[in-house]
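Form 12-C: Joint structure prediction
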Amino acid sequence: MGSKAGVAASGSRFAARAEAGLRLAPAFTLLVMLGPVAAGILGTLGPAFGWLPALGADTPGLATFKALLSEPGIGISIRLSLVTGLAATAISLAITLLTVAALQGTRVFNVIERLLSPLLAVPHAAAAYGLAFLIAPSGWIARLLSPWATGWERPPDILTAQDPAGLALIAGLVVKEVPFLLLMTLAALGQADARRRRLAGLCLGYGPIAAWFYGVLPGLYAQIRLPVYAVLAYSMSTVEVAMILGPTTPAPLSVRLVDWMNDPDLALRLVAAAGAVLQMLLVAGALILWRFGEIATARLGRRCAASGRRFGGDAWLRVGAGSLAALCAAAVILGIAGLALWSVAGLWRFPEAWPDTLTLRSWARHGEGLLAPAGTTFLVGIASAAIAALLAIACLETEYRYGQRPTSRSLWLLYTPLLVPQTGFLFGLQISASAAGFERGLLPVIATHLVFVLPYVFLSLSGPWRAWDGRQGLAAACLGASPWRVLLAVRLPMLLAPLLTAFAVGFAVSVGQYLPTLLIGAGRVATLTTEAVALSAGGDRRLIGLYGLAQAAAPLPAFALALALPALLFRHRRGMTVAQ
Amino acid sequence: MTTAAPAAGHLVLENLTVSLAGERLVEIDAAVGPGEILTVMGPSGSGKSTLLAAITGTLAPAFAMTGRVLLDGAAISSRPTHRRGIGLMMQDDVLFPHLSVGANLAFGLSAAVRSTEERHARVEAALAAAGLEGMAARDPATLSGGQRSRVALMRALLAEPHAILLDEPFSKLDAGLRAQIRGFTFDQIRAAGLPAMLVTHDQEDAAAAGGPILPPRSAG
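Section 2 - Result
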């Protein structure tokens, strides 16, 4: 043992230091994730109540809120935020639950499962542009139906995208939130003992959907509650989807807030801050309202279940649910196809369903302009996803080594950045940063992306990490491997595929960020997303197609890597395909 | 039984008890000499896995342990698992699925063996001893159950443990293979002169081990 002890002693100082660092990882991660949120909210509150000495505002009071509420059409903007947010969330959740209830265990379900990751990776803005290209008066749907069914020889003068009621906005949110909620529901199914509970209902004569709603949903909902809340908060406060698909006169609250924030009249920043506070209150109110809705629905469900009605004839509903889910997927996929086609379209007259000519002229003219924003997108995405992955690994390893149990409180903390409207704290960060005259650049943008990237990377990695067979670690330790060697030589290689997937998810989240890049980058950090969204006002379809397609394609290399690298490295290791 | 005097080559469980929430799960006092195999036998839920966790140092914090575990005369209870010198063979062979058979064996081999040729030779020798010549490059998932068991044992021995624990290592093998692998395992352990502890619920395993047989809870 003499020589062994010597080796151990020389390595132990490093190990002790690394161990100490590891113990700090959870606290550090929380600071990185929640510090900006807390600081930003504080930074928003001051100006909202009329206190921003840098701009000469030094009399605290409610004057800014008065100014906010006297803005023309503010009532409509508030209503739009509330209604579109609640409607999009309710519809997304209904489609998700009906789809899972109707199709769990069928072959169609496997197809849907496989489509989820690519659909999730499509940034909101690209999906919204794609949908706009489909449903616009001169879009693909109108073209396919014209003139033979509609009689239209020219695009009809109706508002389909950007309709005043916000229907297109709701649709744009639904097609993106359904895949997210489906993924979260699938992850929760395993823990809800779904198969047996559904079977128990079926054997009592209940229809498949009723058996699922009565037997599985009550135990499952607690696990998808936070994702549902995140969808509600996002849907109420999204900026980029509302800019592309939402009404304009007036626009939903979030879009107007950003307009005021970017107005040359600096006094409007105070109004924007007040609006951000209002939006946080609206989201909080909507979440409380939703919670009451949950309680009422549960009560209604129990009464319904006690009635003993079997709902056996639900075949039509199952077909309907499957069709709605398919429609969501088709809207995103065809939308991206539409973007691609417009980017190479030459002359494309109205009722024609296909361009007269295909040309690479748009790519030749604007392709070079794509390079710089694409480079920035990749740099910010790789940096934030890599940092997030490192922090997530450190936190999960700490949890494992010290036998900590994940609590519901830590899950709430993880979801906090997804529950606070982005405007709420980004305004505060932006105002304090510009008041303090901070130099802007890539680093603050990466740090802000990290706030949103971290929760998704952690959520993606934590499942496989915690499911890892601990006996592998015991076997390695009994062979004399230190905890660090177990981590580096056994656990991380075995979890390479989920690790790369978590990285890809984080990268995709970063690629899709609009508001953090715009505000924290002070307009000087251009990514594919900021460039693409900036085109929404112009309406040059070829250019939008080009940027939208580039934005949608940006996350793909990361996902391709996550699939290909483990498959290549472990092509002769049959045990590794089972393990995933 | 009285406590054996601490001595080289011995695994001693000195008045070892483990309790959970006031309930005593393990109570054992035993000494195992070099090449000797102590069998701890009892039905599932009788505290066998708790005893193993106490010796490997992987008890959850909720468990309370008293007494000492001595190896070669030194108390090892406060050491981390990887510094205890305790080898382990489990019910499932737990070969690392991402490594080849040879790399699994090399994982166990001490880093003090520096030269590549020497490491290579040691791995090949271990394979030969197990009747698995030339299988270093194989994917462990392509081996038969008996082959995997033998690789797992050779891997544990390459780590040069000072004692070895056998946790129902034969229960997943079919009857014909079982006696053969069992004989191979016991022979290797005796040849290495290691104190061993076999945990099982199987009478035949216990009889074949040829050593003393204790329940995990033998008060007094």
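Section 3 - Comments
The longest strand of chain B covers residues 11-20. Chain B has a mean pLDDT of 91.
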